[in-house]
Amino acid sequence: MNIEIEVNGKPLQAHKGETILNALKRNGIRVPTLCNMTDLTPTGACRLCVVEVDGNENLVTSCSHVVEEGMRIKTHSSRVVRARKTLVELLLANHPDDCLYCERNGYCELQNLAAELHIRERRVLKKSFTQKLDISSPSIVRDPAKCILCGRCIRICDEVQSVSTFEFVKRGCNMYVATAMSRDLNFSNCIGCGQCVLVCPTGAIYERQNIAEVIDSLNNTEHLTVIQIAPSISVSLASEFGLKPGKNINGILFATLRKIGFDYIFDSASAADIATAEMAHELMIRKENGNSLPMLSSCCPAWVKFVEQWYPEYIPALSTVKSPQQVMGSLIKNYFAHEARVEPSKIFSVSVMPCTAKKFEAQREEMTTRGISDVDAVISTRELVKLIQLYGVDMQNVEPQHADQPFNIRSSAGKLFGISGGTAEALARSIYFKLTGKELIQSQVTEIKLGQRIHAFSFKAAGKPFSFAVINGMQNIHQVLQELMNGKNAVDYIEVMACLGGCVNGGGQPVVNDSKIVKLKAKAIMEIDEVDGIKCSAKNPVVQTVYNNFLLEPGSEKATKLLHTRYQKRDVLL
Ligand code: SF4
Ligand code: SF4
Q: In whole angstroms, how far apart are CA 309 and each of 185, 326, 574?
């Protein structure tokens, strides 16, 4: 139901029960905020969204006040703007002045707001800051000196990711954000998903940088520098280079990386197809033996770490197949090295991932064969943007090219790994093809209702019934997971991606603050699937060649040694 309010002297329609901030936003009036997040509980912590409301002596926070019929609001009166300016000045009083050297220079919300409010001098004196930089995690760096206590990281980690790594400690001007017992991040329960990086308005949380190692390798003539690109990257970069958001720029990206100097460029979706062949084999064996079902997906390293920490009893349920990043890494050092007649130790293997947890995954001791890491450096999509800018490639004027053999072809099922539900879909298609020799079509799939947060479906292949569930993001994961694992709704396979929407919304993706862009990226991947000629991983000729020439068959001794892994119980403060 609509109600009428007045904003800056003009009538405006608002929805009954919505906040003033929402009503303003819907009607194209931007009011600044450094703590508000769409769909999460408002806290009014930063107070920057204050507005004047007739009849109220004090300014009110628009994020936490609900509209009322006839309300008269001023959003940019002198009093309001003065209050916002003072609030930002107080934040800056306690904030380092190193914007030129800051990771977030150019896309820091505090910096933008200071410019918007014409703050040109430090009027309030600085308080010295003593908390040190935390570089203990392979995924995330924390710089508490830049924290403005907005609480966004606390809420996203608790309310959306169900991890609760951070909390406010102490009160008043002594307050700060810390992990349990104020331990370093690497000793906390953080799963490295990077969702806090996406919402932090300043440079207080950012991903661990690995770009320097990549540049060193590109300059090292002894090295063969090989790069793999995750399925979601080609739809995540366009807007950063003035192209249409969500546009698939696969070919342009391959050509760009060649200009930068990478010796070989591979498509990780091709490895996703090989991982799918291994998962299909593993699931069918488990089903035959009635063992460790449901099988839990293992392609998201943040989710895997979550299971190792919270649910070690479910470790046997995790698929032992490595993630596509690690499958590709292992094949580069063991198969490609042999084909290209290069010593594995001379190959520097780089991966571009939408995910900060992939940095942690690449460093796991289980991801090393004979002392050689599967993957040597992982850079996020954001770091890739910096690399492209550093090498001065004008992406608007680059002719598309192909990836390199032997990992140049992928199925669209491999590409679907970039979105929530994609792994389950790829697996279903491969199992059906393996058992029937035909492709699974939509009419053979039945949707199952298992609750709001779960997308589930079933199908039959050669008379055998299969049912899969997809958990999109980690909200309420403890309850959802236990319901599924307790057998109340028995399924064969459960896919979990830690980031809502999947890798297109990964913690290493460009910071956009607009959920529409994430949807556009997901849509682009689905459109690729609609028109692609190879829809099933098992039909990818690269998969057939790699098995014929090297791995022999899914689940072979060699495939098990190189493409499967193990997990470990992790003792952390929960
Ligand atoms: S670390 Fe960032 S997101 Fe967390 S409270 Fe500080 S400024 Fe806000
Ligand atoms: S990386 Fe993820 S798990 Fe770790 S603190 Fe940030 S949101 Fe929480």
A: 14, 21, 8
